[in-house]
Amino acid sequence: MLVSPISRFFPSLKGRKYFQEFWALKGINLEIKKGDSIGVLGRNGAGKSTLLQIIAGTLSPSEGDIDVQGKINALLELGSGFNPEFTGRENVFLNGSILGFSENQILNKFQEIEEFAQIGTFIDQPVKTYSSGMFVRLAFAVQALLEPEILIVDEALSVGDVFFQQKCHTLIEGLLNKGNTTFLFVTHDTGSVVKYCSKAIVLKEGEIFYEGDSTKASYIYYKIDSFKNVQMVNEYIEKIENANSGLNQNLRTDGKNSSVEIENWPSDSEFVFPANIKVNEVGLGEIELKSYIIKNHKGIATSQLTTGEEVTFYFKFKVNKKILRPCFAIFINTKENVTVYSKYDFQFKVNQGKADYLLPGDVVSVCYRLKLNLLPLEYSFGIVAGALPENELLNIESISMSRFSENLKYIYAATLDTLQVQNQNESLFLPFMGLCDLPGEFENHIIRNGELIK
């Protein structure tokens, strides 16, 4: 307040800024038609939530215009319109009226909302007594089941447990199949964007770096930090369109020898450079991981996977010093750091033979294809490279586990990222119980009066 009048007497103050200007969005030019399903991808701080809040009307743009035609339901901050002193029933009508629905419209949908939220008799209790899960379930049910003309979802499909998430996904699919709802979806789950959205945009530092096909957008999202401008994105798109990105069909994990044709691997442009690697044990720099990529059974790069899905992990290492060929192992851990799965290359009965030496400058490509028979949870994964003495490496199939452990020297080990495994179908029943599935068979016989019933 004082700078302007004082600057009359002290000209040096004129033009001086007493704040740091920050533009969450800049140069956005976007047109979304009725019935479109648009995914919005970008790293944290890219401006995704700001864009949706402006469209929803909870934020006003500093400049420019926005024209929205249609009734909006925005799943941004779930439950933000709830009064903690009111019951669940009262909040349904309160929140629905805030969204612009009449009392009759809400009344017609109330039973469906109540059944979807699954909070039972708590519907007539004050929401301040609800657990966090009950609270967000009711809030989601109100927003989604009132069948909006425009539905905006900001990471809200991850509310509740895995079973409620499945109901949320089924509900969204139903809305999209009707074709009456325009859908805007912000998430870090590229698999969901490809599934639900015909188009997607990728934001970086408040700018649109890509707008178009959702599958291509998912590739760009994984490498967005390496792009300095839109021109680099266009060049990358051209590369992946020309590259042979087909998954290798010859790799088997059935205990028999298998081989991978290098030309069937993803192109270099598809690989992701490791970021925020947690190195568990560091060797002497003999070998280092340069890039990796995870692809689902459709060949889409994603870390959002389903139980029983076949997924392929690709890793590329650079050799810095002359070393004996290392043993590689992938590992998958729970949040509690319990190892659910880990397996070395020689346990696949591959890469057997003479003990080769690797030379500085060599590039080692490692590929694991796994069937993710895992409980729907979030896991971390990583890769290990270990060195054995030459005599042990040549006789690796005959040495004991204790001898292997005593002689193995870790030359590289890193936890790389997380995997989100979801149930593959809409039913509440899992294909198995426990953390993982084991290969096996089952027989059932009934004996009645000493005779086998067939």
TrEMBL record:
Q: Which residue numbers delimit the ABC transporter domain? A: 1-230
InterPro entries in UniProt:
AAA+_ATPase, ABC_transporter-like_ATP-bd, ABC_transporter-like_CS, ABC_transpr_TagH-like, Bact_Polysacc_Export_ATP-bd, P-loop_NTPase, Wzt_C
Is Endoplasmic reticulum one of the keywords?
A: no
PROSITE patterns associated with the record: ABC_TRANSPORTER_1, ABC_TRANSPORTER_2
GO MF, one term, reads:
ATP binding
Q: Which SUPFAM superfamilies does this UniProt record tie to the protein?
A: P-loop containing nucleoside triphosphate hydrolases (SSF52540)
Q: Does the record carry Cell wall biogenesis/degradation as a key word?
A: no
What Pfam families has UniProt attached to this entry?
Answer: ABC_tran, Wzt_C
Keyword list, A-Z: ATP-binding, Nucleotide-binding, Transport
Hey, which family's this protein in? Belongs to the ABC transporter superfamily.
Concerning PANTHER family, the annotation shows: TEICHOIC ACIDS EXPORT ATP-BINDING PROTEIN TAGH
Q: Report the protein name in the record.
A: ABC transporter ATP-binding protein
